[in-house]
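Weekend entry, working from home. Most of the wet-lab plans are on hold until the incubator is repaired, so I used the time to fold the two sequences that have been sitting in the queue since the last round of cloning. Logging both here for the record. First:
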Amino acid sequence: MNQFLLAVADGTKARFLTLNLAEFPEYEPNLQWVEHECLLNSAKELQGQELWASPKTGRNRGVVGQSHSYDDRRQNHIMEFERRFAQTIATQLVHCIQAYPVQQLFLIAEPQLLELVRNALIPVLPKKIKMSEVTKNLCHLKPHELYEYLVSKQLLPAQTPA
């Protein structure tokens, strides 16, 4: 029943889940998300001087004490960190698709990251996989809450009682 694969991500982490039948349907819901992998964006975990030579941006003191501003292009570096993380997410998705019999892929991420993941994934995604996207940061939700959200948006069928 691993026909559904869910990737839910924000700028800091990405989680990969499949929808499975419960082992004991009389004691638990008959469908449940099982988390297989969680990736962390190491660039987002670094702060201040761990990431940059100077924690403050755009200021410098001259010899005579006058300050002047400049653009150190940190935004370009931050975008590159996000692009690399999106590429890592796309690579992991391909591994999951090869490891599990997936027919439907759900991508849930904030808009900028979703676009980066889509751009990295489309060239390598097998044609047989249907892809649905949700532009929202839901990485903080638990698996059953993610399922309920997808059902409420009519992207997944509701559970049938056991």
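Second, folded right after the first finished:
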Amino acid sequence: MTVDRVLGEAARLGCPLVEVTGGEPLAQPATIELLARLADAGFETLMETNGSMDIAPVDPRVARIVDFKCPSSGQSRHNLWSNVSHLTARDEVKFVLADRADFDFATEAVARHELPARCCVIFQPVAGMLDPARLADWILTEQLGVRLGLQLHKIIWPGKERGV
């Protein structure tokens, strides 16, 4: 789909907010242009990235949601920690946690990079793997300045992996 077609579809839907996500949007060559043009067109624009690619070229009007990967994902070695220096108060960092080891990893990253001073930080349990109440207890016990998030698509559309 072309940038012009995406812009047209966003306008047709009439929603003032657009989030670009899915896989790794920054791996697509036209994403930087798309994000800037969405912002130019007056859309509140968000981009969710897996944290493995440089977010510096993203238009500053775009809110970046950086999903740094935890060890249970098997992808944590790809985290590009230099992205932290580009974060602003309008951005978010998310950690999706499957177990206590992921929690410890995320807690250490939050402290090392002083993430709550930069932007909103969200700890989200993997649905069906980590009980949200347990994660809430860990967050409260450690007195972390993070938010608890839930994978709402898993709650609203259980069992549906795509198209939500």
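Plan for Monday: verify the second prediction. The first strand starts at residue 17 and ends at 20.
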